[in-house]
Amino acid sequence: MNRTKIIDAHGHLLTGAQDLDRIAECGIFEQIWLLGLPEELKIAQCLVATTKEMFEVASRYPGLFLPFAYLDFRHPVEQVDRMVEQGIAGFKAIYPPLPYDHESYFPYYERIASYRLPVVFHTGIVTSPPLSERPVGLSYHPANMAPGNLYNLAGAFPDLTAIAAHFSIPWNNELLPAVVRTPNLYVDVSGGMRSRCQQLMKENIDSVASLRGGRTGTLVDKVIFGIDACYGRANYHQDIIDSVTDWNGFWNDVKHCSWSSKIPAIVRDNAAGIIRWAKAGNIQ
Ligand SMILES: [Zn+2]
After folding, report:
1. What is the 230 CA–ligand 1 centroid distance (Å)?
2. Is 132 inside a domain boundary?
3. What is the DSSP letter of 236?
4. Distance between alpha carbon 213 and the CA centroid of its chain, in Å?
5. How many Å lie between the centroid of ligand 1 and the Cα of residue 228?
6. How far does the centroid of ligand 1 lie from the alpha carbon of residue 202, in Å?
7. CA angle 59-165-50, nearest 5°?
């Protein structure tokens, strides 16, 4: 594996973030997408950062951290405009009260698509905590976050960039035909089921896929790299660096495969292209 700096297109930020200089100076990352979550959510007893904190971190490390706001279906669609005015790079959806492709959500997608911003959608199984720990008004039902919902809405809104997180495991069989047929639907490999993602990638990477602009490529052009870790605590930062090392072992293992020249696309270029596309069309 060469020394391509990577884009972690699936990160989160904890409140009161510390030790970020280490991440900024480790030489591994070109860009890290900080995906917003419901602000009342706790991860390992820590609250997640507010959108305001994500913007502060982004301005302290220009170009490195990109804030993505939590797309909160409990609140009106105008949240999209407010976030765009502040310079948001995209949105993150998880725990929708209704399935992602419910028609009552179409105005959100229409608005986000008008700015050509990406949305990272949690897909697949999700940790199901006790009721007392759940934000009020959200749903943890995995069917609401199944990849078929994204197939439907990505087709309806071709200017929306939809990224299905975590290879939609365990619904990868539902996801893959949707990703290869839909130019604006991508998949990220983030999350705890790393070896399963790696296996799925190896098995399917040469599948022919539709791309934007009427072009055709392969699944390799639709895969986005991500870790799905929390930034902002020293102990998590070591895990993040270890995770990159583990992935480097995988890239090394596949270096003789037909698609190995596209590894930089997976770890950097595909995500960079999504941000470029958004910047080119953003009316701000
Ligand atoms: Zn995540």
Report:
1. 8
2. no
3. H
4. 22
5. 5
6. 23
7. 35
* Angle formed at CA 109 by CA 273 and CA 95, multiple of 5 degrees: 95
Domain-located, residue 68: yes
Q: What is the dihedral of CA 159, 160, 166, 167, to 10 degrees?
A: -40
Q: Which domain holds residue 270?
A: 6-125+139-281
**How far apart are alpha carbons 261 and 97 in whole angstroms?**
41
pTM greater than 0.90: yes
Tokens (6 digits) for 103: 């028609």
Q: How many CB atoms lie within 10 A of CB 216?
A: 11
> What end-to-end distance do the CA atoms of the chain give, in Å?
38
Q: Coil, helix or strand for 46?
A: strand
Q: By C-alpha distance, which of 79, 57, 45, 80 is closest to 11?
A: 57
Q: How far is the CA of 119 from the centre of ligand 1 (A)?
A: 13
State the total domains in the chain.
1
Which SS3 state, helix, strand or coil, does residue 138 take?
A: coil
Kindly give the distance from the C-alpha atom of residue 11 to the centroid of ligand 1, in angstroms, as a whole number.
6
Check residue 1 and give its pLDDT: 45
Taking the centre of ligand 1 as the mean of its atom positions, its distance from the CA of residue 197, in whole angstroms, is: 15
Query: Helix, strand or coil for residue 93?
Result: strand
CATH number of the domain within which 39 lies: 3.20.20.140
Contacts of 71 (CB under 8 A, 6+ apart): 79, 80, 91, 92, 93, 108, 112, 119
Return the DSSP state at 140. Answer: -
Please, are residues 188 and 224 in contact by the beta-carbon 8 Å criterion? yes
Consecutive 10-residue averages of pLDDT for the chain (284 residues): 82 96 96 94 84 97 97 97 96 98 98 96 91 92 95 96 95 94 96 89 91 94 96 95 94 90 95 91 56
